[in-house]
Design goal:
17 helices, binds uridine-5'-diphosphate-glucuronic acid, 2 domains, EC 1.1.1.22, six-stranded parallel sheet, 41% helix, 480 residues, UDP-Glc/GDP-Man_DH_C_sf, UDP-Glc/GDP-Man, Rossmann fold, binds nicotinamide-adenine-dinucleotide, NAD binding, oxidoreductase
Length: 480
């Protein structure tokens, strides 16, 4: 029986291994982690992450050929194929601080593999890593090898949160990079054989190691760039009276451009887009490619601009002050169908409003009160460390309360800010909400989910990203 061990039981390691286990009953899959609480949660009925369809998949194979354990050494030493899916945060200190990937967790996983291995291993990079990481890992392993042979493969993950299970079941492509040597090709084939249990062969792409590593960073940079492009257009739409949804639709009809990923928003979030672009920028700079680095930096700058622009729009619309005013925040996760808040635009928007002394009542159907308070007090980039190594926030933010539902969050509020596109926000009883709010009552829709005309008919002053402005807002330019 082939044995797989995955180091890192997070958003990638957990779902990916569950789908492998379900589709490959003849393979034993063990997911290990240094976080005892994470592993206990995987072993309970309350999984540590919310992902539609995940529960059902895990239920079918947990205890059969899918196991979760904190005994890293045992399972790593027994495995034939080891996936490494640990955190790769942005460095906050030293060389490359603020841009380069911090490979501390990766390196410690590699050293542990070298320490405990007694047989040949295929080591698979699942984490997103800088180009040439495989070379560094190879060096660590071979310098400590005791005669054991290692093959390093790059197999970056392309799943998106909220749709992870369907992405894993029907991936657009599976990418495997490896050495172009006989042993390298054999290792590539072994991993291909795993995916071939359910992924059609023509969707499994093989490349050299460096192309695979770089393709992952490039794919995320291209996706984020589309969002920044449409968000830049949204500012121009507001200035000219064009409607960004109509522009996106017209542009996306060109089959060379395509319709996906053209939704204007308050800004992209998530654990990877910003981190991976910063990483790409750093690699370009290290290779003397300043123009290329600056080009990609601009994608992040536009994203920051969009978040600032939103905050400024809120404050300037409300007579240039939100001091002491209650604002209902609808949604805190970085997108719908996930409880993940890593780099969510809601953090920057809330901090911006708190900076102007607003009082916030925050509602999200999947994010806990504790998580929201931690996010609002944590330093930039600290979130991307294993949970038990994150600094604890001593106290919560006083001007922030957490609401059980949208109605409680909006009661007596002067304004609502929609920051996540949860489906339930489309069908709220906005008449009831309006009746319970202070007047004038504002809705700032950062996700373009509400029916603007209907809300204006009720009496709201509505701002929707990239849409023709409410007459109230016309003479109030939101300068970022
Ligand atoms: P995560 O924080 O959810 O999970 C990482 C896990 O690794 C944590 O549970 C942590 O405790 C564990 N860990 C860290 N060091 C360890 C060690 N030495 N030994 C054992 N366990 C260790 O992160 P994630 O979202 O799963 O991301 C993992 C990697 O995958 C990152 O490089 C990320 O960039 C990449 N990625 C993430 C996504 C996504 O949607 N989240 C998608 C594609 C790629
Ligand atoms: C993204 C990529 O889509 C995945 O392919 C990749 O594997 C993953 O990053 C990763 O490497 O971590 P994810 O961040 O989970 O996945 O979610 P996305 O659907 O890409 O959304 C990212 C952010 O962009 C969200 O805040 C979302 O609301 C925003 N977005 C997305 C827009 O503002 N407009 C759009 O049109 C699409």
């Amino acid at each position: 029986m082939v044995k797989i061990c995955c180091i890192g039981a997070g958003y990638v390691g957990g779902p990916t291994m569950a789908v492998i286990a379900l589709n490959c009953p003849s393979i034993e899959v063990v997911v290990v982690d240094i976080s005892v609480t994470r592993i206990s949660a995987w072993n309970s009925d309350q999984l540590p992450i919310y992902e539609p369809g995940l529960n059902e998949v895990v239920k079918q194979c947990k205890g059969r050929n899918l196991f979760f354990s904190t005994d890293l050494e045992k399972h790593v030493s027994e495995a034939d194929i080891i996936f490494v899916s640990v955190n790769t945060p942005t460095k906050t200190r030293g060389l490359g601080a603020g841009k380069a990937a911090d490979l501390t967790y990766w390196e410690s996983a590699a050293r542990m593999i070298a320490d405990v291995s007694k047989s040949n291993k295929i080591v698979v990079e699942k984490s997103t890593v800088p180009v040439k990481t495989a070379e560094a890992i190879e060096r660590i392993l071979t310098h400590n090898s005791k005669g054991i042979k290692y093959q390093i493969l790059s197999n970056p993950e392309f799943l998106a949160e909220g749709t992870a299970i369907q992405d894993l079941f029907k991936p657009d492509r599976v990418l495997i990079g490896g050495r172009e040597t006989p042993d390298g090709l054999k290792a590539i084939q072994a991993l291909k054989d795993v995916y071939a249990h359910w992924v059609p062969e023509d969707r499994i792409i093989t490349t050299n190691l460096w192309s695979a590593e770089l393709s992952k960073l490039a794919a995320n940079a291209f996706l984020a760039q589309r969002i920044s492009s449409v968000n830049a257009m949204s500012a121009l739409c507001e200035a000219t009276g064009a409607d960004v949804s109509q522009v996106s639709h017209a542009v996306g009809k060109d089959s060379r451009i395509g319709p996906k990923f053209l939704n204007a928003s308050v800004g992209f979030g998530g654990s990877c887009f910003q981190k991976d672009i910063l990483n790409l920028v750093y690699i370009c700079e290290c290779n003397g490619l300043a123009e290329v680095a600056n080009y990609w930096k601009q994608v992040i700058k536009v994203n920051d601009y969009q978040k600032n622009r939103f905050v400024n729009r809120v404050v300037s619309s409300m007579f240039n002050t939100v001091s002491g005013k209650k604002i209902g925040i609808m949604g805190f996760a970085f997108k719908k169908d996930t409880g993940d808040t890593r780099e969510t635009p809601a953090i920057d928007v809330c901090k911006g409003l708190l900076g102007d002394k607003a009082r916030l009542s925050i509602y999200d159907p999947q994010v806990t009160a504790d998580q929201i308070q931690r996010d609002l007090t944590m330093n930039k980039f600290d979130w991307d460390h294993p949970i038990h190594l994150q600094p604890m926030s001593p106290t919560g933010v006083k001007q922030v309360s957490i609401a059980w539902d949208a109605y409680e969050a909006s009661k007596d509020a002067h304004a609502l800010c929609i920051l996540t596109e949860w489906d339930e926000f489309k069908t709220l009883d906005y008449r009831r909400i309006f009746d319970n709010m202070q007047k004038p009552a504002f809705v700032f829709d950062g996700r373009n989910v509400v029916n603007v005309e209907m809300l204006r008919d009720i009496g709201f002053i509505v701002y929707s990203i990239g849409k023709p402005l409410d007459p109230w807002l016309k003479n109030m330019p939101a300068v970022a």
